Amino acid sequence: MTSTIDSPQQEDQVVLLDSVPHPAADAAEPFIVASDRRLIVAYPIAETDFERFGPFDSDDDPFCAVLFPDAVFHRLGPPGDANLDIHPLAGQGLLGWSVHEVMNSSLAAEVAGVASAGPAQRHFVITFQESTFECVASDYTVVGVFGAAEIACREAFALVR
């Protein structure tokens, strides 16, 4: 029998990623475009980020697209903002309508145990009004902030092909 002193303990640490636009609090839900190893999530950005990632016209509905290369796991589903406190990472600083990276991720370690050898894997979490997006990938890149969902969708499909 191995004691907890002898075995390393995985300790998830949630870190806010300020380089990525925050999701809008009460707007359309995100959409995902994925291939076997590339994934893009696109979502409407918070008004508080319009100036930082703009400029935008008054009739724009800004969406950003975030690329996750070498993705080996992703999901989009509950919990949403109203019950985010039930998420396993809620006690580690997971915030609503935000983009996070989980350092020392137990999920990334679990996925690495079953995924084929490849680039180092990182765990990302984006929280939305009605859902939470999680993925395990090698990195992330904001590929663009666009004036409308249709443009973000076209770009996402073009980049995943």
What does this structure look like?
- With 161 residues, the chain is α+β, with helices and mostly antiparallel strands.
- It has one domain.
- Helix content is 16%, strand content 31%.
- It has three helices and nine strands; from the N terminus they run βββαβββαβββα.
- The strands form two sheets. A five-stranded antiparallel β-sheet has the order 1-6-7-8-5, with helices on one face. Strands 2-3-4-9 form a four-stranded antiparallel β-sheet, covered by helices on one side.
- A hairpin with a 4-residue loop joins β7 and β8.
- The longest helix is centred in the last third of the chain and has 12 residues.
- It is globular, with a radius of gyration of 17 Å.
- The termini are far apart.
- 30% of the residues are buried.
What is this structure's SSE topology?
Blueprint: E1 13-16, E2 31-34, E3 38-44, H1 50-53, E4 63-69, E5 73-77, E6 99-103, H2 106-114, E7 122-127, E8 132-137, E9 141-146, H3 149-160
Antiparallel strand pairs: 1-6, 2-3, 3-4, 4-9, 5-8, 6-7, 7-8
Entry summary:
The protein has helices at residues 50-53, 106-114, 149-160; strands at residues 13-16, 31-34, 38-44, 63-69, 73-77, 99-103, 122-127, 132-137, 141-146. It is 16% helix and 31% strand. It has one domain (18-160).
Number of domains: 1
The number of strands is: 9
Major sheet attributes: 5 strands, antiparallel
Chain-averaged pLDDT: 89
Total of DSSP H or I helical runs spanning 4+ residues? 3
Summarize the helix and strand pattern as letters: EEEHEEEHEEEH
Which structural class should the secondary elements be placed in?
alpha+beta
In which range does the helix fraction lie?
10-25%
Which stretches of 5+ consecutive residues score pLDDT under 50? 1-9
Q: What general form does the structure show?
A: globular
Radius of gyration: 17 Å
Biggest sheet, spatial arrangement of strands: 1-6-7-8-5
For the record, give the distance between the C-alpha atoms at the N and C termini, rounded to a whole number: 49 Å
Strand content: 25-35%
